[in-house]
Amino acid sequence: MQKWARLLYQPGVPLYGDTRVTGSKEHIDISKRAADEAVVLLKNENDLLPLSGDAPVAMFGKASYEYIKGGGGSGDVFCKYIRSLYDGLKERGVRVYEPVIEYYRQEIEKQYEAGRAPGMTAEPDLSEDMVKGARNFADTAIIVINRFSGEGWDRSKVESPSEFSPWPAATSMPTLSGEVFPDGDFVLTAKEKEMVSKVTASFDRVIAVLNIGGTLDLRWVKEDAKIGAALYMGQLGMEGGLATADVLLGKVCPSGRLSDTFAGTLEDYPSTEGFHESYEYVDYSEDVYVGYRYFETVPGAAEKVVYPFGYGLSYTSFDMEVVDAAAVKEVSGLKKTVNAADFTEGNDGFCFTVKVTNTGKVAGKEVVQLYYSAPQGLLKKPARELGDFAKTRVLAPGEAQLLTLSVSKYELSSYDDLGKVSDASYVLEKGVYSFYIGENVRNLTKTDFEFNNEEDKVIQKLSHKLASVELKKRMLADGSFEELPVGEHKDINACIFEKMEPGTEEALVPAVRGRDSYFLTYPYKEGAKTFAEVAEGKVTLDEFMAQLSDEDLIHLCGGQPNTGVGNVFGFGNLPEYGVPNAVTADGPAGVRIQPETGVKTTAFPCATSLACTWNKDLVEEVGFAGGEELKENNLCVWLTPAINIHRSPMCGRNFEYYSEDPYLTGRLAGAMVRGIQRNNVGASVKHFACNNKETNRKHCDSRVSERALREIYLKAFEMIVHESAPYTIMSSYNVINGERASESHDLITGILKEEWGFTGFVTTDWWTRGEHYKEIKAGNDLKMACGFPERVKKAQEMGAVNRADFEQCARRILATILKFD
Fold this sequence. Notes:
By secondary structure, the protein is α/β, with parallel strands linked by helices. It is built from 23 helices and 30 strands. It folds into three domains: about 25-265, Glycoside hydrolase family 3 C-terminal domain (Rossmann fold); about 320-360 and about 365-395 and about 400-465, Immunoglobulins (Immunoglobulin-like), CATH 2.60.40.10; about 530-815, Glycoside hydrolase, family 3, N-terminal domain (TIM Barrel, Alpha-Beta Barrel), CATH 3.20.20. Helix content is about 25%, strand content about 20%.
């Protein structure tokens, strides 16, 4: 098959041999294995788990019937089937009390008929007689609780004033949320509490299972002695119920670890207070103290934690021993204090060798977590920060494995945005840096190894980019706040000509550009140098582009029509020059193809659940499988991974994102990118950046300090650019410090391309409110789902953009298409 044959002719043939891999058993098995490792055992009093499998069980909660495989919006996936926990237990031969399941089935179907969506249903009444009948059948009860959220709305009843939208009238999800969860979905509803109370009053053996994509108040789980065991099931894709059943039955030893801190109330998170203060902005006043960085640092915050970051139990036990630590390759043997003078030229970090031994009675996996503590200094810092992690293979009882973990001096450094040490620089402040090894952020052992930095050191000198102009204060390590300098307000709608009416871009489909008649025997423009000649090395890319008109270049800067099974549009598409149309697909929990095509793909665990595996190799395997499905269906870019930080539990899209921690996010999502791109198709890492609120997401200003921006919200993107070389980055809808992300030259050109050396192309998110000519000028190469060539041409005529700007964007797009095979 010739290069781009799938793009040019859309052959519906298998990727390998005679059998399609899309939705195949092999890929579903990968989804199942990922789900196995994502389940987190939160509680297991008196070894209630694992269950024997021989005894019957009773299941309670509407989520016993209604399984949520993932969130809504672009993160949804259309697959052959899904297995609930009920399905999984039945598959494994467990007897389940059927009358309760049938009751939930009937009640939930009624709510669906009335217009409610899966996961946005009310908990039905549970009669005493039904509980009594279940108790006569079984002595073990499983309570299942679910939650659902999706793109375009947050986990609340707050809804911003709507702008023009061509979408058909539909049920307002915030309104529905207010009806189903009058006190918010972070807590149990009155009916859920009543159900839990009835079950715990009747059963002595009670297990809670949480089919949720984000955080929830779990004090009722931890503090109720009648609930003997609990699993964070997460949202595990199509095989989630079977995976959870296997953990309950001991067929899989749980090895998942939480990727977020679970606090008792929504108000315990510092981001909550101002989350809905305004539709127009959000102040990131907690600064770098996000998630465990807040709870483990600020006085009085630790007591608010129910389950800490990195937490998870097992059916076996492990011992961890640091057997070697070094600052330089030539030095080994646990030298207790290393000074700056001990470093050799070119060495930039510290390496730890940890021996992990299974000291229990069953085989299992362990996660080793390395944290560091930096001196408070002038900049003030979190008490603990994740430096590295590693997961063992399956270890038999008595078996041991050596793992190597490392942390760089750059990672230890802090960004100085106010010039307290060195302005606009990453600096290592003087003082002692300590290192800790353990199983979660709370359960750690301080190593004997430490780094004594005898004087302040500049690790990287930069310049101010995208500085905050309206954030007035930020939190410090002791919980107090420091004032920040403010600047002049920026007009996000500034335009050299009349701005489009906000919302009229929504759902606008690219124009199908017509072609003049041509001879079948020569389909290209007369005298044209073809794109195939560039691929073959006969013509340079610059020579190819020199023949294109300004209109051709502008055309390349906008999205293109759907072809084949694509439904989220393509790019390229200059057939008279042989440039194919490279079509994209939504993600990130599977390749999302509309069901009317007849193509069913594999639904993998959502990103938060993948993060709970803490397994880079496994996530890369998921990425490779997804990349195969993308390629087999003649698609070129998978719009994944989504790596925004879990700043607040309220963000409706958190299920699509990995964690509250940028390091865990960057390492795992970087593995996803590498897996995808081993297929010579592209990943699009999104949403760049600070897309941490869905309410009024296309206009809301994320006001954040330069330090928090670089250390928290950009860090995972930086890691992935350096370590995984993604083909594309997707800019976000929102505003950052007064500039639309897609229009920010500081963000896209200054930081991403110039500082980090990113060589791929940047695409907007679909139907942004950014002005196309301003996006081009900022270095945002492609406007999706369609461009606005007439407005760009007008801007060119007015001198705001020129051919060189178009060439720069088009060159990156064409260079990326050359990578596809």
